[in-house]
Design a protein that fits this description.
It is a single chain. This protein has 222 residues and is α/β, with parallel strands linked by helices. 36% of the residues lie in helices and 19% in strands. The protein is built from 8 helices and 8 strands; from the N terminus they run αβαβαββαβαβαβαβα. An 8-stranded parallel sheet has the order 7-6-5-4-3-2-1-8. The chain is globular and about 50 Å long. The relative contact order is 0.15. The chain binds pyridoxal-5'-phosphate. The site of pyridoxal-5'-phosphate has 14 residues, from β8 and α8.
Length: 222
């Protein structure tokens, strides 16, 4: 099936209140343009420099989502245009994003990444780390960011019950953390679910799914 057909099929299978991010990492601009011409505007990348290169060439009304693990020293390359940064896992990174956003007179939206998978390879904050950030006095100084929700990744496993439990955990963290809502923390987005597990994620309350291979086909890493 073509990118256009895949997109159409996935969009028709998810509820209207769930935002679909088309994860285009490693894929050429021609693939992104096919999805763009089919009407899609929200794309996700996991490397800042790759995203910046694509942003420069592709139509300017694309919303770029940074979904990868964040390196503070590279935030400056996307601060001018990034729409949402999904993978923030420290106060220090929030402070760096704030600093770069201020330079461009922007407010940058971020999600806190929480660790829900048991695998050591997955990044993210614990619930108590997240509480510490959200209750920090210093958070109110960050006038150029908004934390608009949470992001998480389930374990890479075929065990559907395990995946369901992990998403359920993230949803419960989301509910728990809403008590810390403030001008800086306005939680509305729960970013969870990928090609293999987005249906389970939606059943557990996801409002944003990040789908790559089910739209663009398998990735070749060379
Ligand atoms: C690559 C990636 C995705 C998309 O993965 P698929 O399995 O291809 O849908 C989603 N989220 C993150 C954080 C990713 O790195």
């Amino acid at each position: 099936m073509s990118i256009t057909e895949n997109l159409k099929k996935i969009k028709s299978s998810i509820p209207k209140n769930v935002t679909l991010i088309a994860v285009s990492k490693t894929k050429p601009n021609s693939a992104i343009l096919e999805a763009y011409n089919a009407g899609h505007r929200a794309f996700g990348e996991n490397k800042i420099q790759e995203m910046a290169q694509k942003h420069e060439i592709l139509p300017k009304d694309i919303e770029w989502h940074m979904i990868g693990h964040l390196q503070s020293n590279k935030v400056k390359y996307m601060a001018q245009f990034v729409h949402l940064i999904h993978g923030v896992d420290s106060f220090k990174k929030l402070a760096e994003i704030n600093k770069q956003a201020l330079k461009h007179k922007r407010i940058i939206n971020c999600l806190l990444q929480l660790k829900i998978a048991k695998e050591d390879s997955k990044f993210g904050l614990s619930i108590s780390d997240a509480e510490q950030i959200l209750t920090s006095d210093k958070l109110t100084d960050l006038k150029n960011i908004k934390i608009t929700g949470l992001m998480g990744m389930a374990s890479f496993t075929s065990d559907k019950e395990c995946i369901k439990n992990e998403f359920e955990t993230l949803k419960s963290y989301f509910s728990k953390l809403t008590q810390y809502s403030s001008p800086v923390f306005t939680p509305t987005i729960l970013s969870m679910g990928m090609s293999g597990d987005y249906q389970i994620a939606i059943e557990q309350g996801s409002t944003m799914v990040r789908v790559g291979s089910a739209i663009f086909g398998e990735r070749n890493y060379t």
